[in-house]
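Hey Z.,

So I finally got round to the adenosine-5'-triphosphate thing we talked about over coffee. Here's the setup:
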Amino acid sequence: MKKQIKKIAVMTSGGDSPGMNAAIRAVIRTAVFYKLDPYGIYRGYQGLIEGDIERFTARDVSNIINRGGTILKTARSKEFRTVEGRKKAYEQLKKHDIDALVVIGGDGSFTGAQIFSKEFDFPVIGIPATIDNDIFGTDFSIGFDTASNTATEAIDKIRDTASSHDRLFFIEVMGRNAGFLALYSGIAGGAEEILIPEENIGIDRLVESLRRSKRAGKTSSIVVVAEGDKTGKNVFELAEYVEENLKEYESRVVIVGHIQRGGCPTTFDRVLASRLGVRAVEVLLDGESDVMVGFRNNTVEVTPLEEAIKLKREINKELLAIVDILTT
Ligand code: ATP
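And the result:
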């Protein structure tokens, strides 16, 4: 018979993303609502191994829904990748009498959670939070909306100077091996070209397309480049190559960088984090484990962690298609 859940712990793990605090708040308050004892684990799996665990009350998460980052801090733990490390983590949970764990993070954190759950028969639930938006089983992960708004704002500002000086700007946005952030901010910012890892258009086609748009009367251009794009050149080399082969333009490079990870979460991210946080606790109470709560087709849905980790979230082809049309 499954043990009744009375005490649950929540942690944030992997890269931080705006909205993690809203998810922590939702998990803690939902636990209190259902008369459970909530705990917060600091610094992800590393903090768990070291016993950096505290009892939380509903008031401990006041005034955090609007804040970026994570009050629980986050970490990457090498030790948790070892059986010995995970055993220490389990012992800490037992010491505090904790019955279940909610992990807010990306697919790496979910992989760790799943291995741990299988090894120790311990209930875990995942909440997707990464600005890369690359997790299968959810249309949006917490932080993506805020990060894409930040990237769009950066593009808007750069557009002012690009058009004043008739320049070509290459703007690199985050996203690691996924192009979602580049695609969304590129469309929203009206970029002429968007280079993403999922579709390699090739540098020469890029040059050709920029030449065509110049001939069509455009005096400035913006190319949004995902950090994981597959052109084989970094953004500086890319700009240099294009400048050599397209003398009509003077080009500049901007790397938007870590500002995309910070700042106040948008309304969308706060609502998403709140919904997923509530549901995470409810599915635990329903006896589920090894699942991720996600947001699909405008409803909160549950996906096995195994699928969330192994399956690849595909880029929306319709979005790719409209880029070609809108840059005419
Ligand atoms: P982000 O997408 O922002 O990078 P993430 O959750 O994917 O977030 P990772 O650094 O990949 O970030 O993973 C976070 C932590 O999860 C790791 O530091 C490690 O402690 C744990 N983890 C990842 N993969 C494994 C694994 N195969 N076995 C055990 N633990 C793992």
